[in-house]
Task: structure prediction
Amino acid sequence: MTIGSQEKRQINISVDPESGFCFGVKNAVTKAINELADGQKLYSLGAMVHNPVEVNRLATMGLGVIDYDEFAKLHNAKVIFRAHGEPPSSYANLIARNIKLIDATCPVVLRLQANIKKAYQQMRQCNGQVVIFGKKGHAEVIGLIGQTDGNAILVENEQDISKIDFTRPIEFFSQTTKDVSKFMQLVKILGEKSESQFHWHDTICRQVANRGPHLREFAAEHDVMIFVGGHDSSNAKVLFEICKSVNGKSYFIENEDDIQTDWFTDVTSIGISGATSTPSWLIENVEARIKKIVE
Result:
């Protein structure tokens, strides 16, 4: 294989087998596509995935994206709830407004919502607190806090623990996509500070969390690492930083048009991976473009 005037040499291109959609996102996108098959307009409450390329593809199929204000005014329509989950308020008055709901909430998120709701009911009886480790404003977190009537305490880092009253009981949970090591660090700190009952729940999805250690090994095996993801995706940013930490020649792209030919000068191996919000077809397009460049 050659690049420009370089001598012909073998270049290995490997696609990370664990890249692309996680189960929850894949299930939600599949449900949306199936619903769009009948030609009726379908609305998604928030973007299905944090990937503009996939969002645009779904839009061409007829999927419209609406926000909470638009959803509140909607009548006689079909709506899909994405994998991130929704607060109880999103389920209110659907029948009265003649809205057909396709609930694509990830089963892992649904289970977490139920556990948080149960813990909140228990904490109300003993003047306790539900504390959630998560990102403020994240779609999943909005749904989780909604299970507590908005009363859960959200912590994003160690500085936020000042919000917690350690003389009162604590039930501690995590957003499903957070870093396991950071969560366990907070568990240790909260456990040491607690002066009352303290229970913590490991609610992090391992399908997502395990990608970090795997990706670290995968990126280190290649001369160049190409990471495919949306610039607005928190998961993509975290995973790309892992690539960058072990491979200085790691490049973040949203699609194949972002690829630069000079990245592949004097290399013998190229790795390709993507975020949990990156569709497999997009990764395949990137692989095809790279093959055209190096062959």
Q: What stands out?
A: Residues 1-6 have pLDDT under 50 and may be disordered. The CA atoms of residues 114 and 147 lie 8 Å apart. The chain is about 40% helix and 20% strand. The two ends are 4 Å apart (CA to CA).
